[in-house]
Design goal:
506 residues, alpha/beta, Spore Coat Polysaccharide Biosynthesis Protein SpsA, Chain A
């Protein structure tokens, strides 16, 4: 039973009572597992472009930009960096004064001077302890050094957003992922000397992002020769999800319903607000220094150009279908395009008469479009590319997480394990229709692809409802193409020690 103050909470968040009941029902019923046909792989759902096709795609992208293309780069950047420093927190809070040989902390200290924030940490230690980090390391005062890096009284790297940490060293100073994303945007998505970027941030860190942008934009514009139009947004309160007790009743703290952020799937609302036709999506931490960005830039251009090529053909077919200027052979041609280029399969198509075939093809083509880069799986975590069955009985390309696949189905588990590629969150999307109007992206999600996770709050166990992931169920009803890209384009920083990898050393 709802209490009077519950109504106020719902009104403040923009969540209806029906939506609340729907969430609670999900805890009761759970989410269904998906039916999968197979893992996508080269020649079966993943396109491997030839050098000639790559060059053709690059040229098409350059033409799109030179024709005044409508482009924005969308970067989820709301996550705090606490997980990046998990091993460091464990060391500071643990009993041992010396890190175990070969441990993350031991390796970090051994390569201290290769860290992009080494001098800052040295100065911070001098302020806190009267001796620099290098001296403290020589004196084996390791906990002081690590605490100075992650604790609020020091540099507070454990509490800051990942996008504002120093990642890469240059002769003129260090750069944050925010600055590297700006630089990459200037190199891949500038139109008439202007690059549009949008970052999603947390309300707690918005002021820090605004301050950083104010300080770095003039220098970055001077260095790149590009003017930046940068906007920020936050996850909308209306996308929060209610927490539940283990018995599926509403979880309360101090008598009030507890709502939590719904995960990155909530950002489909933010993406839906974008005005650009073409939107690049990339995680904040997947950046490299200037000296190592050639592959990233080239394959951004390739997948973007391939997107425009697909969009050109789709627009052509939609015009034909809308005007009725087709015969049965043309409908078959369109269906083959959808099957071969978009990996959309539907055995029911051949059973339809000509009129219904045309309607079917129009409905399928008239949807948001995305091209997703896929890299060879070398043990990195990430969603996998699969061919999965849709609610209407058709099968299409989907990016799935392991929790969406029934662990009790040996056949599906085997298919999951057979996947050769994974999604590095390297997407480029076309989100306007052929008339230049924005698609309503919220109408193309699959609400049945969320999941329930176990969390806690102040020591009390709870169930959390995660929305369909942004590039998973939130884009379930999109036209999709998977394109193989080299692993060189995927260089995330998941732990602080990743900054010591060659990819992050200038």
């Amino acid at each position: 039973m709802l209490q009077p103050e519950d109504q106020l909470t719902l009104e403040a968040k923009g969540i209806s009572e029906d939506q609340l009941n729907g969430m609670l029902n999900r805890f009761e019923k759970g989410f269904p597992y998906l039916t999968i046909i197979d893992a996508a792989r080269p020649s079966n759902g993943i396109t491997v472009l030839s050098p000639e096709q790559e060059e053709k795609a690059c040229l098409r992208w350059h033409k799109y930009l030179s024709d005044g293309g409508d482009v924005c780069k969308f970067v989820p950047a709301s996550g705090a960096a606490s997980r990046m420093f998990k091993a460091l927190f464990e060391f500071v809070d643990g009993a041992e004064e010396v890190p175990a040989p070969g441990s993350a902390v031991d390796l970090l200290i051994a390569d201290f001077d290769r860290l992009p924030f080494a001098d800052d940490l040295d100065d911070t230690c001098s302020r806190l302890y009267g001796a620099g980090a290098r001296q403290l390391i020589a004196d084996k005062q390791y906990k002081k050094v690590i605490a100075a890096l992650i604790k609020p009284e020091g540099m507070n790297y454990g509490g800051l957003p990942k996008g504002l940490l120093k990642f890469h060293s240059y002769p003129g100073g260090s750069r944050t992922p925010l600055e590297e994303q700006l630089t990459e945007g200037a190199q891949t998505a500038a139109v008439n000397g202007v690059a549009n970027l949008h970052f999603t941030v947390s309300s707690a860190h918005r002021a820090l992002f605004e301050e950083k942008l104010k300080s770095v934009l003039p220098e970055t514009e001077k260095r790149t020769g590009v003017r930046f139009n940068v906007t920020l947004s936050e996850q909308k309160p209306s996308t929060d999800t209610v927490a539940a007790n283990p018995d599926n009743t509403p979880f309360r703290e101090d008598g009030k319903l507890l709502f939590r952020p719904g995960g990155h799937g909530a950002l489909i609302d933010n993406l839906n607000d974008m005005e650009a036709a073409v939107v690049f999506i990339k995680n904040i931490d997947n950046v490299v220094p200037d000296s190592r960005r050639d592959a990233t830039v080239r394959y951004k251009e390739i997948i973007a150009g391939y997107l425009i090529e697909l969009h050109d053909r789709i627009d052509e077919y939609l015009e034909i279908l809308a005007t009725g200027n087709y015969d049965e052979a043309k409908l078959d041609e369109i269906f083959v395009f959808m099957r071969d280029r978009l990996s959309l399969h539907d055995p029911n198509f051949t059973r339809l008469d000509v009129t219904h075939r045309a309607v079917y093809l129009h409905d399928k083509l008239d949807r948001p479009l995305r091209v997703c880069g896929m890299v060879r799986n070398e043990g990195e975590p990430g969603g996998g590319p699969f061919i999965a069955v849709n609610p209407d009985g058709s099968a299409s390309l989907q990016i799935l997480e392991s929790h969406q696949i029934d662990p009790g189905n040996a056949e599906y588990v085997a298919k999951m394990k057979s996947a050769t590629h994974f999604n590095p969150v390297d997407l480029v999307c076309y989100i306007k229709d052929r008339h230049g109007n924005n698609y309503n992206l919220l109408a193309h999600t699959d609400p049945a692809t969320g999941f329930i996770s176990s969390k806690s709050s102040h020591g009390k166990e709870l169930k959390a409802l995660e929305l369909p992931g942004l590039w998973n169920g939130a884009m379930s009803d999109w036209n999709t193409a998977f394109v193989e890209v080299p692993v060189d384009t995927f260089n995330p920083v998941k732990t602080v020690n990743d900054l010591l990898r060659p990819a992050h050393q200038s």
